């Protein structure tokens, strides 16, 4: 089932999410719905707060992006439950990011190039992995959602002021998307 994506301005997007327990009701169905929602919106990542769930869960599938780019990096399709980024290293690099909760806005965001992350998969098996480049960036973007951080928070004060009107429009639902959005406070 395709779920509506919560728009910028919703309080859930600013909250630190709680950990997921193994007895979370219908977690497998939620994850399946998140995949379907992300693909319908043509995203490469989706975090639980974006579908109005305040839990530490996100998923990514970088294959759509890598199909458009010449890259030696393999795509990654993974579910991350209760993730913890334990290190961010490497050079800072800028990339033009967007967000399904903030449609029609894309900005150059600087992030480190290498991360180490501990997480549980959908079977609650623990993993410790290192990722770099674009995959690390997608993970950091989705991870930020679990801590109430949006990519627009990383912009300069001047750039934030310039986008204020567009962000207000999004929070009121005055935006065009090809996917279902939900306006909540």
- Tell me the quaternary state: single chain
- CATH class bucket: Alpha Beta
Tell me the number of strands.
Answer: 7
Which spans have pLDDT < 50 for at least 5 consecutive residues? Answer: none
Helices, by number, come to: 4
Any idea how many domains? 1
> First CA to last CA: what distance?
23 Å
Give an overview of the whole structure.
The relative contact order is 0.23. The protein starts with a strand and ends with a strand. The radius of gyration is 16 Å and the shape is globular. The chain has helices at 27-40, 63-68, 133-146, 157-171; strands at residues 5-6, 45-47, 57-61, 77-99, 102-120, 126-132, 181-182. It has one domain: Peptide deformylase (Peptide Deformylase, Alpha-Beta Complex), CATH 3.90.45. Strand 5 and strand 6 (126-132) form a beta hairpin. The protein is built from 4 helices and 7 strands; from the N terminus they run βαββαβββααβ. It is 26% helix and 33% strand. The strands form 2 sheets. A 5-stranded antiparallel beta sheet has the order 2-3-4-5-6, sandwiched between helices. A two-stranded parallel sheet has the order 1-7. It is an alpha+beta fold and 185 residues long. The longest helix has 15 residues, at 157-171.
Features of this protein?
185 residues; alpha+beta; Peptide Deformylase; two-stranded parallel sheet; 4 helices; 33% strand
Q: How would you concisely characterize the structure shown here?
A:
With 185 residues, this protein is α+β, with helices and mostly antiparallel strands.
Map the helices and strands.
Elements: E1 5-6, H1 27-40, E2 45-47, E3 57-61, H2 63-68, E4 77-99, E5 102-120, E6 126-132, H3 133-146, H4 157-171, E7 181-182
Parallel strand pairs: 1-7
Antiparallel strand pairs: 2-3, 3-4, 4-5, 5-6
């Amino acid at each position: 089932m395709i779920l509506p994506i919560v728009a910028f301005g919703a309080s859930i997007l600013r909250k630190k999410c709680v950990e997921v327990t193994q007895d979370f009701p219908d977690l497998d169905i939620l994850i399946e719905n998140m995949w379907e929602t992300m693909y319908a919106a043509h995203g490469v990542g989706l975090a639980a707060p974006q579908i109005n769930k305040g839990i530490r869960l996100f998923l990514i599938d970088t294959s759509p992006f890598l199909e458009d780019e010449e890259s030696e990096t393999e795509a990654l399709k993974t579910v991350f439950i209760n993730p913890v980024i334990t290190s961010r290293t490497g050079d800072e690099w800028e990339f033009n990011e967007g967000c399904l909760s903030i449609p029609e806005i894309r900005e150059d965001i600087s992030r480190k190039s290498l991360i180490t992350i501990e997480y549980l998969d959908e079977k609650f098996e623990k993993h410790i992995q290192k990722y770099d480049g674009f995959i690390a960036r997608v993970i950091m973007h989705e991870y930020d959602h679990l801590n109430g951080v949006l990519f627009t928070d990383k912009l300069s004060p001047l750039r934030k002021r310039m986008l204020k009107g567009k962000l207000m429009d999004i929070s009121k639902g005055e935006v065009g998307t090809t996917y279902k959005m939900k306006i909540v406070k």
